[in-house]
Queue: 3 jobs
Job 1
Amino acid sequence: MLLARVAEVSREVAAVSARSRKIRLLAELFAEAEPEESPLVIAYLSGRLPQGRIGVGWSVLKEVVPPAVPPAERPGLTLGRVNETMTELAAVSGAGSRAERTRLVHALFAAATDDEQQLLLRLLTGEVRQGALDAVALEGVAQAATVPAAELRRAVMLEGSLPPVAQAVLAEGATALDRFTLRVGNPVQPMLAHTAASVTEAIGALGPCVVEEKLDGIRVQVHRRGDDVRVHTRSLDDITDRLPEVVATARAVPADGFILDGEVIALDPATGRPVSFQSIASRVGSRTDVAGAHATLPLTAVFFDVLAADGEGLIDRPGQERHEVLAGLLPASQRVRRLVVADPADPAQVEAAERFFTDTLARGHEGALVKALDAPYVAGRRGRTWLKVKPVHTLDLVVLAVERGHGRRTGLLSNLHLGARAADGGFVMLGKTFKGLSDDMLRWQTERLGELAVEDDGFTVRVRPELVVEIAYDGLQASTRYPGGVTLRFARVLRHRPDKRASEADTVEDIIGRS
Ligand SMILES: Nc1ncnc2c1ncn2[C@@H]1O[C@H](COP(=O)(O)OP(=O)(O)OP(=O)(O)O)[C@@H](O)[C@H]1O
């Protein structure tokens, strides 16, 4: 398939507003593509490169930004050729790499029509303006392959991503869905939570439920098959090698064929209180000296769910039943603390749940999760059956650009431009902040944002909109300076969230609606 066709549909999809029309356009495109091309079609439509980071920054892009390279008159670039070039780009390293990257990108742009150049540029700068494309693409695939969207969605959650499932159903139809079941060893998208204002409100919404402590660490999904143990993050990255102590914990469980869901945290040996999220994140993030990092900050895995045990999938069982299985696998010290509220109409039980929440905060944890006792594990969804309660309300925003620091912060990337997701798939800037950033956080973001840079005027560095930051704020105020007409009051950074994707950031509508 030609890239021109994807560029054309990408434009059409952005231009129509009816969801059903977008799905129809995508279904036609998937029907035209060869099944094995569908993973690339999905990636390019949603602005992702299968190669991940390919090291093409502003210094290379400025050589090709239109009109620097005259567009080709006729389309001839195939998806395969684009993919090959991206793979070559990802492999470039060492001396002369910038010249080599420029040469490759230049050749690609010279072969592209105007339309294609625009799409390539959007791919390389990470700027995608297609609201919620992943969900629409899934329905487009379902329509093209004539399989029910709900069944396809479930297969995708269990497989971890759409492209391999799309390729299979487009080639073989519905029968291929049977292959994508819960398998120990294959990470599934974790279940997520909605927000509730208080524990009492959450209990009122859920009925019989359990209140659990919300630990402030890194989510882990641990798979064990015989001696093979795998540890995955919330975004399904494999971090097994970085967490030897979690591997040891999983090996010590007197059972096999299981998937555990939990959080890694660290406890201060002197006080027994949890250490800061930032320290845990930097420990989990360090790939080089794992043994040294382990010795400095040993982590503890604490689990709250089990998705499979003895090789048998448990996700459709009620939460309480899964918990009983979990209690059979792990000692209480490796499970989150919890309190069952069997009768939500009993004020004493609700009061006890509120006390559990305050006590959890007093012990240094982040908040609580309230979960319906009969809730199945809905992979990949923000279920209405898991509600989180936190004392401070925070926003997840995306870094759009960053200003170079001065004075004490010279040489560091400091003042962050913060964006919320907009309905069209782009981002709306809501304000700037350099508050709340510790020296460690500044160093970390300088490195990470340097990798994401796409444009630099010597003062402000524009970046691929990929880094999520968790922001505390004191409310919104009207502002004519920002495109949404509002800005954040006293925004401060609580933490970087490299474990979250930009597509998971808060939307402008939500933020305005909530204030
Ligand atoms: N007992 C628990 N049950 C479920 N999740 C828990 C628990 N304790 C801590 N967590 C963490 O809280 C998160 C649940 O909240 P949510 O689904 O909103 O994810 P999130 O967006 O990562 O949350 P947050 O930004 O509040 O950490 C999980 O991803 C997990 O990392």
Note: The longest strand covers residues 394-404.
Job 2
Amino acid sequence: MEPSSGVGAEKRPPTVDLVKDKNGTDQILLQNPKGASVKISLHGGQVLSWKTEKGDELLFNSTKANSKPPHPVRGGIPICFPQFGTRGSLEQHGFARNKMWLVENNPPALPSFDSTGKAFVDLVLKSSDEDTMRIWPHSFEFHLRVSLALDGNLTLISRVRNINSKPFSFAIAYHTYFSISDISEVRLEGLETLDYLDNLHEKERFTEQGDALTFESEIDRVYLNSKDVVAVFDHERKRTFLIRKEGLPDVVVWNPWEKKARALTDLGDDEYKHMLCVDGAAIEKPITLKPGEEWTGKLNLSLVLST
Ligand SMILES: O=P(O)(O)OC[C@H]1O[C@@H](O)[C@H](O)[C@@H](O)[C@@H]1O
């Protein structure tokens, strides 16, 4: 595979390599000139790993994850599309995370994309296979650009295009499993005072009180119309994740806690302590595309270290 363009300030160029996992599934390994890396599986277009230049993993991956297609890996960033959860007639979280995506060598131009020093790859999921058409009879193209910048920031730009003659609607979530020291020690800021739909109370609507979120039991909520930046503070590890999003008004917050974790065969009993899902999403108001229209959504993840 050709390395991506953008040889910039650093001596070493960013690299893009095709590798295989133990099941023979193709994966893409992005590395920036400083040695930070991102691994993406073509199965689901799922980011599996995001590492700092020191090699610290920033995304949670379950030790019990089943990486054999068609199972999505429990961890990383599965993409929920065109349905979130059970809000629709499709399988939980839609089919995109279970499909094989393709590497796209000539994606439609992304005018605002600055490639300087970035390692990036373009993937695509098309509706053309019979299975997809049977369960969701809409012709679409889902273009996904995953890029790793010189400063280690990870960006996912999604473009969904309606290439049919009738409109369709979809929901989307980047189901991001952050790796954390201990769920009882982290704080989530940016969702104070927002309304949310509580999946643990039949999707009933509540309003968050004024404080940052801390965690002491199972949580499964969709916060509505959030600001474009939310932050996960992990004091023990002295690190903060900043989640910046565009075109993604909602934020899902999920942790299964002890009882549900035990019921999930692909999650270790205690592993819930070391993960927190915070998803940039568009759920409450599905996105509708008329024929020929395109939607763009962007998620940018960065790490801030404190001393
Ligand atoms: O086990 P899955 O299909 O990956 O889903 C995990 C969780 O994902 C969350 O986003 C949902 O709100 C939860 O209800 C769900 O349990």
Note: Residues 15-305 form a domain with the Beta-galactosidase; Chain A, domain 5 fold (CATH 2.70.98.10).
Job 3
Amino acid sequence: LSESEILVKFKSSLSNSDEGALGKWGKDINLPPCKGGNVSNWGDAVVCEGGSVTGLILENMGLSGTIDVDTLKALPNLRILSFINNKFEGPIPELKKLNRLKNIFLSKNGFSGEIPGDAFSGMIGLKKLYLSNNKFTGPIPSSLPTLPKLMDLKLNGNQFSGQIPDFQQKSLAKFDVSNNALEGPIPVGLISRKNPDFLFSVGVLVLASVLGVVMVMMRRGRKQQPPLSVEAPPSNLGIKAGLKEEDHSSASTHSRNGNGKKAEAATKLCFVRDDRESFDLADLLKASAEILGSGSFGSSYKTALPSGAEMVVKRYKQMNNVGKEEFQEHMRRIGRLNHDNLLPLVAYYYRKEEKLLVADFVHRGSLAVHLHGYQSLGQPPLDWPTRLKIVKGVAKGLGYLYKELPSLIAPHGHLKSSNILLNQSLEPLISDYALIPVINQESAQDLMVAYKSPEYAQHGRITKKTDIWALGVLILEVLTGKFPANFLHKGKASEDQDLATWVKSVVGEDMSGADQVFDKDMGATNNNAQAEMLKLLNIALTCCELDVDKRLEMKLALDQIEGLQDPKEDEDFYSSVASDAGDKRSSRGMSDDFSL
Ligand SMILES: Nc1ncnc2c1ncn2[C@@H]1O[C@H](COP(=O)(O)OP(=O)(O)OP(=O)(O)O)[C@@H](O)[C@H]1O
């Protein structure tokens, strides 16, 4: 069978598959699912690599019926299967027949029953398994602790019972078994993990194992309590974010008392990740909102959930480029991205005329503020090691976007220092990425960074290297402390002069003037640090090459940035003649000395 025939056969065992993305499948059986390369002919639900099907992403489609693994066996390159948020019921499919799968996502369905102990035997490549929020019962399958590559396991929100087996895999980085009926001690292998990033969630289990069944009973009892009555005061956010009063009240009441399904749907937040607590607009609207700033597209507001978690809601008016279904698909695609240097999208709210995107609030604010307005933060300026760390993190995040979103010409599209947020340890989190496909074309061309690139100015088009130009400009901003926008539209004489042109003109061909462009706020540095700064300056300038052919490729830029030497732990990177700014700091690290 051809790949087309296999997929059509697979689809025939599903119910509810004639609408939405699957409706298109097989309409023209001569059109193969993959075009060649990584491009799918059949829409986002089919992931292609090297011209053949490597993944099926069938999420939020109301699907039920049978997942026909025997048919899927005929796709030799299939690595990812996702059926998140559908209506599948009954026992788990016999996934081990697809023993080359790397990622399996079955969360938010109605799968039930015990999973056989050997259900995952032999799946030696399996890295991610999400079974959250189904109705599975019985013990956690004994084959799971034997999988050598398992990295991310989510079993939360089921009725798994018995004890947690001892997971010894070093690869395991995320583990969530919260909200089950598990009991007994937490295995030593899990408690004693050395990797600092290990995310381990047993939810109430710890309490349950200490206090016994009583706690579990209490928890169940709590679940059955009548919903809280909501008397949310009209919130600033509701008004500021342009939600009509009726939307606001329906978000507060209907979603709570179960009435008015239509109104509820109209005000429901759509969650794009299954690893986050759910909340609704009413929860966001309860606290009064603080405006963080107004960007090109609208304003961003900070508000807090009843749990205390602080969230940011960004309002977009110019986001009508695509229809509802395509918009939702794109949001889900963004929601699947997962990288330490990307700010995850948590949820969105869709209305024809406007959209709200919800993300976590990042406490130290943007790189732009740290570079240009640090005095207002009452903090010392960023030092060289921190700037280097930020550049490395941004490059990694951007590299990941390139890898994960190969079909986008500019996978970020709006890279600039106000879209780089800094967490507590001053690690960068890139935000506002991958939005070009959903922003109105005209607004995108007017407002987005990609469209300020030299190639757009010269030839009216952006290319695969446009984000690299933006990265180059961002690095120059980091190194010089100069705000790129100040170099644009500065009157006639300098109209074609951007930050890169200015830097080039000052440093000269032989780079002898480099000292004059480096931001003095980084402090005086020793020779090693200066050599690395110079290398970074060179990389940035090559990223900014006007001639796209001469500009660095993403992979090369990443490798070169990654190769820069971090100041050694035991090395005092400041020279003895510290500048004023340098004097204000302790000798290194800085970040931990700040208090916000
Ligand atoms: N999740 C967040 N946590 C903390 N600060 C944020 C967050 N999102 C945005 N901000 C800050 O809020 C301000 C307004 O952000 P917004 O994204 O609305 O505009 P912008 O980034 O300046 O411009 P643009 O709309 O072109 O992206 C910026 O200073 C931004 O750094």
Note: Residues 202-260, 489-495, 574-596 have pLDDT under 50 and may be disordered.
